[in-house]
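ABC transporter substrate-binding protein structure dump, as promised
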Amino acid sequence: MDRRSFLRKAGVAGAGSVAAAATLAAPAIAQSNPKINWRLTSSFPKSLDTIYGGGEVLSKYVSEATDGNFNIQVFAAGEIVPGLQAADATSAGTVEACHSVAYYYWGKDPVWALGAAVPFALNARGMNAWQYHGGGIDLFNEFLATQGLIGFPAGNTGVQMGGWFRKEINTVADLKGLKMRIGGFAGKVVERLGVVPQQLAGGDIYPALEKGTIDAAEWVGPYDDEKLGFYKVAPYYYYPGWWEGGPTVHVMFNKAAYEGLPKAYQSLLRTAAQATDANMLQKYDYLNPAAIKRVVAEGAKLRPFSTEILNACFDKANEVYAEMEANNPTFKKIWESIKGFRGQHYLYTQVAEYSYDVYMMTLQRSGKI
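structure tokens r here:
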């Protein structure tokens, strides 16, 4: 055979092989990276850019990683369903996903609250450690499966503030008869100390404080609270929010919809959720320091809850836990897991983290940093 003829034919054959390979590969890629459009309903208004923004951050990560093939359209609270119905809409299949805080649904079953935050539990760092490495995600998903859902941490605010009060609260006796906007588990605890819990949407809090319909209200922390102007009508700003040491914000998916995704998309959602989880906490950590200086400059009076009040709340919280453990096996199983790690977490934290932080705080107070 003529050498040039052989090479020419081989070249043509090689080009044909490449073209054939490309033809074969394209459908395979398309099958593994299909076009999918989902809807996600948030429990938050767009005005709270940090916590609402978590849903948009997740959507952005997923879209970028799939060259726009997997799109998750984010809707603010009220655009599809009210914020406190986000998980219900996802379970029912009205939407494929929601971005919400699980304790919003604790009235249906107190187990919901354990996935987010309960009084005197873990801080944000401890909560993440328990969830990602202590089996917390799997434990909570065992419960979510009974609701037709699967969920992953996708945000955290860090320890929250203790709320805005129209008058100083120095003793447990000062709590008696106090009408406070506070929900969920914490409301059940402080109710045992004479507080009258009130359920109000964020937009209704300011006028209620202004008119004296309520005496106090908890929300989130300086960056979010500043937007609502509470310092104008309830100047005493207490800390810490012992009921939310490290509240997790979840992205929850309709379980059937999630399981119908390609494995690569399932993995991507888990990874994007974890990245969103870290991003939100980092953003709050960056924005809150400047915000607290601004609200103090505007007239907020920072006050710590007294040890007497914290101890009384801790004791009442344990009473509530004992009752729930006695009547709810799933609650007992998850709460025992959290408690088991809580002791270990604070054992180590006081050795290195706390010692370092306290020293750095003394430097800050003395003006050296």
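The two ends are 84 Å apart (CA to CA).
lmk if u need the other ones
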